[in-house]
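Hi U.,

Before I forget, here's the chain from the pilot set. I'm dumping it here mostly so it's searchable later in email.
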Amino acid sequence: MRFRVEKLIRDGLPQMMRDQGLTVFSHRLGDAAFLAALKAKLLEEAQEVAAAAPDGLVDELADVAEVMGALIIAAGLTPEAVEAARLAKRAHRGGFEGRIYNRAVEGEDGAAGVAYYLARPDQYPPLPDDNVPCDTPAPKLSID
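Structure:
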């Protein structure tokens, strides 16, 4: 039987698969394809983090860190540059210690911030004015 995989895998996996009696059909990616595959892999790993049980979270976060490290290098960046950008964003916008969950925003047509949301209707769909009562508690989120 043959199975379609079509994804970037860790360097040691082809030999591990061969040791299990599998034939591996793979090739080395060029720079642009590698960068695109790393971005896709980061999304895959982030979804695995979102689905992880508490006892598996550390392994999934380790996978995200591994992909991020490879992506940083493949993009011609340095870990120091990414850390500097992280710290700059943190200084300007803050971190996540406050656990703030934004349910909605509202603004008058022509307000400076409204254009940002209007430009991204798939990400921020408009709501009827009376659809989101802001005086009720936010729904409890679960990542389990």
